[in-house]
Amino acid sequence: MAGAELRDAFGAPEILSSEVAYSGLVWDVVRETFRLPESEEPLTRDFVAHPGAVAVVALDADDRIMLIQQYRHPIRARDWEIPAGLLDVSGEPPHRTAARELAEEVDLAAADWHLLADQLSSPGGISETLRIYLARGLSAMAEEFDRSGEESGIVPRWVPLSEAKAAVVEGRITNATAVIGILQADLARERGFTGLRPADSPWPARAVHSREPS
Fold first, then answer.
1. How many angstroms separate the CA atoms of 206 and 10, rounded?
2. Domains of the chain, each with CATH number or no CATH
3. Cα separations (Å) of 138 from 109, 119, 163?
């Protein structure tokens, strides 16, 4: 309706059936049949079931952002990202997961946390909901985290926020979460970091993706 508030509308339709069509090493593919009022017949869709994730824009007192370079096999590339991780600990609040991932990936703690942005990574094919936090008041952890696998090859780099923004605009940084985080952080800085949402703000997208397939 014209003039209505622009806001994503979350809420599951009538789901007639739900099953795991393929069980993978990391992700499962779920097949669901459901009804929509705009369709005369039930619809069936396959999608990657994702537990959700968080990411962190860590910004220091000199307005430098912590970026990490990491190998990602599906794209055969070492892309530039911001620290991030899955919501894979049952009962852990998302902003606590963000703090844990910041420590585990780049050995940093933060005294000041705010919500920076919410992201639907690829809503046509994956159920991932991702929340990006802004972390400031940074300090180094007393001990470095012992990393393994791809994470053992993480390359951390402090980058001036203006330089990171230029890399986004020029197409040198293309990771979607990093792009959103960098641009949102730059906008927040322009606004003097006022009007940011609390780190524990409600997350409507999570409610409709927390149900396990039957």
1. 9
2. 14-49 (no CATH), 53-193 (3.90.79.10)
3. 6, 24, 20
Q: Which of 151, 163, 170, 212 is catalytic?
A: 151
Number of neighbours of residue 115 by Cβ within 10 angstroms: 20
The pLDDT tens digits of the residues spanning 136-165 come to 999 998 777 777 777 778 899 999 999 999
pTM over 0.85: yes
DSSP string, 116-183: EEEEES-TTTB--EEEEEEEEEEEE-SS-----GGGGG-EEEEEEHHHHHHHHHTTS---HHHHHHHH
The Cα–Cα gap between 92 and 101 comes to 12
150 catalytic? Reply is no
